[in-house]
Amino acid sequence: xxxxxxxxxxxxxxxxxxxxxxxxxxxxxxxxxxxxxxxxxxxxxxxxxxxxxxxxxxxxxxxxxxxxxxxxxxxxxxxxxxxxxxxxxxxxxxxxxxxxxxxxxxxxxxxxxxxxxxxxxxxxxxxxxxxxxxxxxxxxxxxxxxxxxxxxxxxxxxxxxxxxxxxxxxxxxxxxxxxxxxxxxxxxxxxxxxxxxxxxxxxxxxxxxxxxxxxxxxxxxxxxxxxxxxxxxxxxxxxxxxxxxxxxxxxxxxxxxxxxxxxxxxxxxxxxxxxxxxxxxxxxxxxxxxxxxxxxxxxxxxxxxxxxxxxxxxxxxxxxxxxxxxxxxxxxxxxxxxxxxxxxxxxxxxxxxxxxxxxxxxxxxxxxxxxxxxxxxxxxxxxxxx
Length: 386
Ligand SMILES: *Cc1c(COP(=O)(O)O)cnc(C)c1O
Description:
By secondary structure, the protein is of the alpha/beta class. The chain has helices at residues 32-35, 44-54, 67-80, 91-108, 128-133, 137-140, 158-167, 192-203, 273-288, 291-310, 337-343, 366-385, and strands spanning 11-15, 18-21, 26-29, 84-88, 115-119, 150-153, 171-176, 206-210, 234-237, 248-252, 316-322, 325-330, 346-347, 349-351, 355-358. Helix 8 links the parallel strand 7 and strand 8 (206-210).
C-alpha cells in the first residue's frame, strides 16, 4: 500500500556504516534504518548468531519455556534495574503493553477510567492506542475515533504537569520519551525526568519511558534516563534491540512488573528463540566493544565538528542531541534535504519538518564522521543559499 513515499534507491547489501545500491554505488548510512542497525550492517557476530540459531530453533511458543527469552529478560532487567520483561515484535507493541499495564494499575486502584499523561511532539507508534498517545496530528488525522484516557501537556513543561496533577484525579501514569526522536530530537531540561519521577512518587503514578529510539546505547548510556539519577517504573524498547531483527520489549519493576496474569496479554512471535538470541548477542557485542562509551565520545566529536562547520551560518537555528542522536534545526522547512543528501551518497533524515536528524551506527569511525560533516555542511550551505 502507499503508506510510504520511498526515495529513489534500492539497497542490495551493506557492510558496517556503508550500504550499496543495485548499481554498486556506495552510501554512508548516517541513519541506521532509523536507529535500528547500531552495530552497522551485516555485523559478522550478528550474522553468525542468526545463522546458528536458525539452524537450531527459530520458534516454539510462549506456551512453553524459552531459555533464551529468560536469559534476555534477566540481562535487560539487570542493565536497566527492572524486574520483569514482556517481549513483542515492535516498538508500538511494546508501548501497547505499557499502556495496558498502566490501565491495569489504575483499575487495581479502583480507577474506572484511568488517564495517562502524554506529551506534545511525542511519537509512540501507529497502532490505535499508540497513535492516540502520539502528539502529532499528522499521525492521528483520519483515524478517529481515538482512544479515551490520554491527557497531553507540552514537552519539558513541569509546571503543566503539576497543574494537571492538581486538576485531574484519575491520572495513573506519565508516558514520555527521554529525548523526543520523531518530534525533532528535543532534549529536555537536565532535571526533567527527575521532576517527573518525584511527581509520580508523590502521586503514586507509574513513570513510563519510551526508550525505543534512545535506548541500547544510542545516547552514550544504555538508556537515556541514566543521564539523570532516576529509575522509571516501565521502559519500552525496540529499534536497536535486535539490530534489524524485529523485537520489542516492555520491562518493568515493582508493582508494574506483576500486573499481567496468565491470559491477559500475549504475542505469538514475541520473544521467540531467534529474536532473543540476536538481542542477547547485540548486548554482548555492545559490551565487548565498549560501543556505548564510544557512542558518547564519537557523538560529542560529531556534534562539535558540526557546530564548527555550521558556526554563524544564517538559517541554522540549533544543533542538539546526546551521543549518536543529533538534530540540526534550520529556520525553514528542509524535507528536500533527504533527497539531495541521497544524491551525495549520504543517508540522513528530516523530522518535524525542519530538523535534520543523524542516527549513525555506533561503530562509525572518526573519518566517517568527518565525511558526514563535510557532505552535510556543504549541502546545508547550498540549501540555505537558494
Ligand atoms: C520508532 C518508535 C516507536 C515505534 O516503533 P515501531 O517499531 O515502528 O512500532 C515508538 N516510539 C518511539 C520513541 C520510536 O522512535
